[in-house]
Amino acid sequence: MLDLLVVVPHPDDETFGAGGALLLAKAQGLRTGILTLTRGEAGRTLGLCAPEELAEVRLRELKRAAEVLGVDHLEALAFPNALPQGAEEAPRGQATGEGLAQHPEAKEAIRERLMGLRPRFVLTFPPDGINGHPDHVATSRYVEEAAAGLARVVYFVRPEGPYPVTHRLRLPEWALKRKLQALAQHKTQALSILDFMERHPERLWTETFHLPGNQGTREGPWW
């Protein structure tokens, strides 16, 4: 049985969105887990591997990040990874032109894991996917439907966005250090990490969440 399970489409989403939450929950004795629905094969290679090798490289990156985050459970499914909008630049890994939106059976795969792992809370993207990536949007929808009657869904959200912040986690120095170390494992995503650091540096040490049904903003965890 888990207390928190992060369900995201791509390796690296788990650390960007909830790396601090996973670390703080683990430090308080809770059991945590990560489930990714794809292996990120449509991402950039940055010359670190051949396109056909990217899925396995990103899986190894995810495993190293999960070790830094100290999670109790890790699983990566192999549904196809959609390209983000405006992703014509090369080189990238192998993409089929399909993504999670074309594979609604991912919802049943999520529900099977929830029934087996029995998490109290599931963390995922909000319905808008934060940045509109089709895989983010599809994952949010699938998690919401799969978790019905099984777990409470929590969204990691932008501080200023359509979903009001109900819980804010300000990471202590030790947790920020570990989160940065986890991000550093995703070497194929270095450009995305640098872009995030340039545009939203404060979101590295402050994570914001929306727990549906709650009002107001609480400083601290919801668990």
From TrEMBL:
Coiled-coil portions: none
Pfam families: PIG-L
Protein name as annotated: LMBE-related protein
UniProt-listed InterPro entries: GlcNAc_PI_deacetylase-related, LmbE-like_dom_sf
Lineage per the UniProt record: Bacteria, Thermotogati, Deinococcota, Deinococci, Thermales
Species in which this protein is naturally found: Thermus aquaticus (strain ATCC BAA-2747 / Y51MC23)
